[in-house]
Specification:
This protein is of the alpha/beta class. The protein is built from 16 helices and 22 strands. The strands form 5 sheets. Strands 1, 2, 10, 11, 12, 13, 14 and 22 form an 8-stranded mixed beta sheet that branches. Strand 7 and strand 8 form a beta hairpin. The relative contact order is 0.20.
Length: 491
């Protein structure tokens, strides 16, 4: 470690010396926390999503020398802004929302002067089921319509299962873990409901945040996901997970969420190396040699800040333990795209609608109102099988089908859009889907402890490794900080 800052002081939370800002650092120019003369940095971070950036920031502030290797030509990972093709409006292509108890991402937003806007949540939302659009109060996160029947008690039971002393972040320690992890979410909920409407509602409660089918994910995984939607002082709840006001969709970022990682990367300066997909991590003699397309780097520690579903793209030498291999094989990414249509005016508000839809529509099953530079937007998620069907479809087909959904939901005025945006995460080579990796039945109880357990000098970050708010920006930041503390404590 090449700084006079005490690791013990830093880990105890006292003031640490901050790293030098953008434009100063280079591997050939070595301030206190840049690469030392022997060419071996304290830590190499693989991945410049929010987790990798949070790890690098924490390491740098703790006095460690650090290099960040990013496969893309940009920072942010699954947090990404795109431009609409006609007007050049900024659109959130990936993670977008922030809500209560997401204190870590909120602190970064304040630090980097990224402001939030309240998600519009006035009037009625729509529950779309079996071709029917039923209005419901936007104040409630899930439909309170007459025919939900047994879904209400079933959702209450799922919430109770996620609250009853749930070991957040370590679901394999749950007293009923083996049983819950032997079931898919579909099997778990089918034990409680029998009508198709109730099944559809139970599915959308899970697919809205995960973008997978109910038979693709372990019930234990999603119960942990619910339990993780809080913090150390506020237990996670299904209401907070799915709500707008008071929930995970309460606010969005003015200018797009990607402003945060963009500004973080700028502050890290030339510690950042882009177009550097890592091919090999070889460990020998207490030093890790990381080979990337941008060159070879040597470090005392490595933080792999990647989803476990894709971290096995790297060739590890020596190979990883069987438990870590089993873990990565048991995780897979959700299939998802975001579609946005821009309008001159929010015509849905004139009808008393919030712009929010939940249901079984195809290809879009969940929508929200959004904003971009004073323009009003309807944004929708294309998930699971609907996304896989459209993975290779041309833009005009996706626009036609999605606008058709908006017409079904909000009326013929939806045809009068002035621009649009599409981003297919399935085809993004360094994500291979989104918004989060999920585990198949049996994975967590067999291999769960390998999720965060270091392997020699290699530590693991990524939102999937978080305790609270796994799958969200806040979880990504939490995981990066945790991995950095592990490294600082071991240097």
């Amino acid at each position: 470690m090449s700084s006079n800052v005490s690791r013990r002081q830093f880990l105890a939370g006292s003031a640490a010396v901050a790293g030098t800002t953008a434009g100063v650092l280079a591997l050939g120019h070595h301030p206190a926390n840049a690469a030392p003369r022997d060419g071996v940095v304290d830590a190499i971070v693989v991945g410049a999503g929010l987790s990798g950036l949070a790890a690098a920031k924490t390491l740098s502030e703790g006095g460690a020398s650090v290099v960040v290797l990013e496969a893309r030509d940009r920072p942010g990972g699954r947090v990404h802004n795109i431009k609409s093709p006609r007007l050049g409006a900024t659109l959130d292509a990936g993670a977008e929302f922030i809500g209560p108890t997401q204190n870590h991402i909120a602190a970064l937003a304040r630090e980097y002067d990224v402001r939030t806007l309240r998600t519009y949540n006035v009037g009625d939302s729509i529950f779309f089921n079996d071709g029917r659009a039923q209005r419901m109060s936007a104040a409630v996160p899930l439909p309170l319509v007459p025919d939900i029947g047994e879904a209400g008690p079933a959702l209450a039971r799922a919430s109770a299962d996620a609250l009853a002393g749930f070991p957040v972040g370590e679901p394999w320690k749950h007293p009923n873990a083996r049983h819950l992890d032997s079931l898919t979410w579909k099997q778990y909920t089918d034990q409680m409901v029998s009508t198709q409407t109730a099944r559809d509602l139970m599915q959308v409660a899970m697919s809205a945040p995960l973008s997978v089918r109910p038979d693709e994910v372990s019930a234990l995984y999603f119960l942990n996901y619910i339990a993780a939607s809080g913090d150390e002082n506020n237990p996670g709840t299904l209401i907070r997970l799915l709500s707008t006001d008071g929930g995970a969709q309460e606010k969005l970022f003015e200018g797009g969420a990607a402003l945060i990682p963009l500004r973080m990367a700028k502050a890290l300066g030339r510690r950042m190396v882009y177009n550097a997909p890592v091919r090999t991590i070889a460990t020998s003699g207490g030093i890790a040699t990381v080979t990337s397309d941008a060159g070879t780097f040597r470090g005392r520690k490595v933080i792999v800040a990647m989803s476990p579903a894709i971290s096995d793209q790297i060739d590890y030498r020596p190979g990883l333990p069987a438990s870590r291999v089993g873990l990565t094989r048991g995780y897979h990414m959700g299939a998802v795209s975001k579609f946005a249509a821009l309008y001159r005016r929010p015509f849905w508000r004139e009808k008393g609608l919030s712009g929010q839809v939940y249901g079984d529509g195809r290809p879009i099953d969940v929508t929200f109102e959004s904003y971009a530079e004073d323009r009003h937007i309807l944004m929708g998620f294309i998930s699971a099988d609907a996304m896989r069907r459209l993975d290779r479809a041309p833009a005009h087909q996706i626009v036609r089908e999605c606008i058709g959904n908006f017409v079904d939901y909000f009326g013929p005025e939806a045809r009068d859009f002035i621009d649009y945006g599409i981003f297919k995460w399935d085809l993004e080579p360094w994500s291979r889907g989104g918004p989060v990796a999920v585990s198949s039945p049996g994975t967590l109880t067999r291999f769960g402890p390998a999720l965060r357990a270091p392997v020699g000098p290699i530590h693991w970050a990524g939102t999937e490794t978080a305790d609270y708010w796994t799958g969200y920006m806040d979880g990504a930041v939490r995981s990066g900080k945790r991995a950095a503390r592990e490294v600082l404590g071991a240097l």
